[in-house]
Amino acid sequence: MAVETCEYELVPYRGFTLINGIHDPDDVDQIQDLEIRDSDVFVVTYPKSGTIWMQQILLLLEAKGDLAAISRLNTLSSSFNADLIPLD
């Protein structure tokens, strides 16, 4: 079985390594200007390890288990996936 490798052009920008054509430098600017509140929750997971599942669990906790309340929410529009790689 052949293993397929992908070549991506990595572009350094403000201390992050971005994948050219996938990440937008404007996203980094928005993150750096983001005002973080005490009530904010960050979901940080490894790729393909249940990120959406974790988001659903957090929504259920916030809604006190009310499935009807979270079914009205569009979780894709309420989350931000940065996928940025910090430079060492």
UniProtKB/TrEMBL annotation:
Top-level lineage group: Eukaryota
**Residue ranges annotated for the Sulfotransferase domain, each copy included:** 38-75
Entry keyword annotation includes Transferase: yes
Q: Which UniProt keywords apply?
A: Transferase
Which SUPFAM superfamilies is this protein grouped with? Answer: P-loop containing nucleoside triphosphate hydrolases (SSF52540)
Pfam families in the cross-refs: Sulfotransfer_1
Q: Which Gene Ontology MF annotations are present?
A: sulfotransferase activity
Name this polypeptide is given? Sulfotransferase
Q: Which organism is it from?
A: Champsocephalus gunnari (Mackerel icefish)
